[in-house]
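name: query_chain
kind: protein
chains: 1
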Amino acid sequence: MTSETGERAAMRRALELAASPGVPLWPNPRVGCVLLDEDGATIAEGHHRGAGTPHAEADALARAGDRARGATAVVTLEPCNHTGRTGPCAQALVAAGVRRVVFAQADPNPLAAGGAEALKAAGVEVEQGLLGDEARALNRVWTVATERQRPFVTWKLAATLDGRSAAADGTSRWVSSRAARLDSHRLRGLCDVVLVGTNTIAVDDPALTVRDADERPVGTQPLRAVMGERDLPATSRIFDDRAESVHLRTRDPQEALAELWRREKRHVFLEGGPTLAAAFLSEGVVDEIVVYVAPLLLGAGRSAVADLGITTISDAFRPRVTDVTVLPAVDGEEPNVRFTLEPQQHRPRPTVAS
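structure:
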């Protein structure tokens, strides 16, 4: 087996380790590391298990002991070069006598980057980019959030065939099917914030928890965030003890995201109404759109998104479709279709006339 082939196989194994079940998605990236000897045989493996635990490189080095001297470290993310909850991995690799480091993805975090240069300065051979696309895909949301220094925003909506999120009398339970709602809870559980506006709380009083088919809360619950300036009743369900909650007293999406970033939140599931959705779209801070389309026609009622200031078709907002999935019918309901889309570019703020 050649060295290149051995390192590629080791990187695939490191990616598997990074994606180990039970590893928290937030706030840190998922990282795996494999140490190889001069013949390409595995000495030790390691992976990160969440904030405050040893990084993948430190985990592997601890398992290898003295056998790490002269080894090649194959890592999914550039070794960090700063002291946070744990020490710098670049320095740990140098101290252990590692001869060569191969990593897949450069660290986009300006506080942690620089590990490659520190390793080279210490005389360690460094190679970057092996299975880089796969590594970025593994930590896609974390990577985008870190690059933009704000939480990644997934906007979720449910609509009829004619784009209505509620009927003319305001009723909206249920626009989407049971299968779509269960799928939405699955996606909600992948985020660390669920965000709505104060009007959604006032009108619908949602629980905003992750629940199973029997409506029981499951898993680690995301932060329930509501933004807006109006006061909310203390009896609102988001203030119960089923999950942590915060009221962000602002109408500015940028301010709300900045506060959530300070709280080390990295993935926002935006579930507010059409006004909040339009505000986030206009600010260019929607990174992903998930739409559940039901085979219904209302002809009137609340639109899925409020006025975006678009007056001609050439200015239409045109996200790119990345996935289309038909959700199977359950309980006698018609199938719904889930569209996943990605904005092709961030829209500038609309010009406000003086």
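note: Residues 348-354 have pLDDT under 50 and may be disordered.
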